[in-house]
Specification:
Number of helices: 12
Structural class: alpha+beta
Largest sheet: 5 strands, antiparallel
Number of domains: 3
CATH topology of the largest domain: Uridine Diphospho-n-acetylenolpyruvylglucosamine Reductase, domain 3
């Protein structure tokens, strides 16, 4: 069993207190919400923290509300289980509720938070190991080393962003409310992430994510989230996609959005889909073209414990299954990402 390092635990009651503590311990404090990722990283010694600031008592971060303009406002400390089970989210933002239901296991969903999932640290086969293992390898760009073992000679870490909720939030044009000593700032969720997996967020050391704002979706929007992982619970995704399509009364596409994670250090919105799909019916021929375009744009790296060539092959398969689930009159519940493999003899 890996022991935790020594640290101080602070438990503020208000958002203002959190901001003050972050400023006081600038660079040496970490925010603790559910702790499902942070505590593991502390045990493996690839996160350093002298102080943890526990957010459980900050009730300002624990609410799901609907604003006057129909925007859904979700506090960063709302748990994934609360997202999964919330009736209004299941009705109006079903892909988000579904994505939350696929994070790890029910026990982790009870602890993990939306803010933690949005700010999830990047992962790589060369960093998510014990300190003994990493030391024997000579460390890497993400922690203590000077070499990337994925891209030889690479100057930036390519550890993968693997959040389940982020691609759905990108498709819904979510905005993030960031609080710091200079007050409140708002930015589109895509602007939260940087290209460098070692420092993958644009948050300053004295800032925190307070709320996620999701504009009201079109009443005709169909959306889903598909994920493949080695096991059907616990594991982070090997590939994941959020797909959203809007149709006019004649079932022609008026909007198409696809976002992916697990490719590199930033989530990826697929580009140039409008010219391919707008004004066309969502039929098998168009689905094949869209799936091929996604495969052309995405190039998995050897940063996850899965063969990148196999992941490349699976991109059009998963996109096809997701889009087929959104064809008019088709069931809105996404099909399984993969048929389970038969047991080995």
């Amino acid at each position: 069993m890996l022991p935790l390092p020594e640290f101080s635990l602070l438990a503020p009651d208000t958002l203002a207190e959190v901001v003050a503590l972050l400023a006081e311990h600038r660079g040496h404090a970490r925010l603790l919400a559910g702790g499902t990722d942070l505590l593991v990283n502390l045990k493996h010694r690839f996160v350093d923290a002298r102080t943890l600031i526990h957010l459980k008592g900050v009730h300002e971060l624990r609410h799901i509300t609907t604003l006057d303009d129909g925007t859904t406002a979700i506090g960063a400390a709302v748990t994934l289980a609360e997202l999964r089970d919330h009736p209004e989210l299941q009705r109006h933002l079903p892909a988000l509720a579904h994505a939350a239901s696929l994070v790890a296991s029910p026990q982790i969903q009870n602890m993990g938070t939306l803010g933690g999932n949005v700010c999830l640290d990047t992962r790589c086969v060369y960093i998510n190991q014990t300190h003994f293992w990493r030391q024997a390898l000579g460390y890497c760009l993400k922690k203590d080393g000077t070499e990337c073992h994925v891209v030889k000679g690479g100057q930036l870490c390519v550890a993968a962003q693997s959040s389940d909720t982020v691609p759905v939030l990108i498709n819904h044009a979510a905005l993030l409310e960031i609080v710091g000593p200079d007050g409140l700032r708002t930015l589109p969720i895509e602007q939260l992430y940087k290209k460098d997996g070692a420092q993958h967020l644009t948050l300053a050391n004295d800032e925190l994510l307070a709320r996620i704002l999701i504009p009201p979706p079109s009443p005709t929007l169909r959306s889903t989230y598909v994920k493949h992982r080695t096991r059907q619970s616990i594991d982070f995704p090997i590939l994941s996609f959020a797909v959203a399509v809007d149709l006019d009364p004649e079932a022609l596409i008026t909007d198409l959005r696809i976002a992916a994670t697990c490719i590199n250090s930033r989530p990826r919105a697929i580009k140039r889909l409008d010219r391919l799909a707008l004004g066309k019916p969502l039929d098998d021929a168009l689905i094949a073209d869209i799936a091929a375009e996604c495969a052309r744009q995405l190039n998995p790296l050897d940063n996850i414990m899965s063969d990148p060539a196999w992941r490349k092959t699976m991109i059009p398969v998963m996109i096809t299954r997701a889009l087929q689930a959104l064809i008019p009159q088709a069931a809105l519940t996404p099909r399984p990402a993969l048929t389970p493999r038969p047991p080995l003899p």
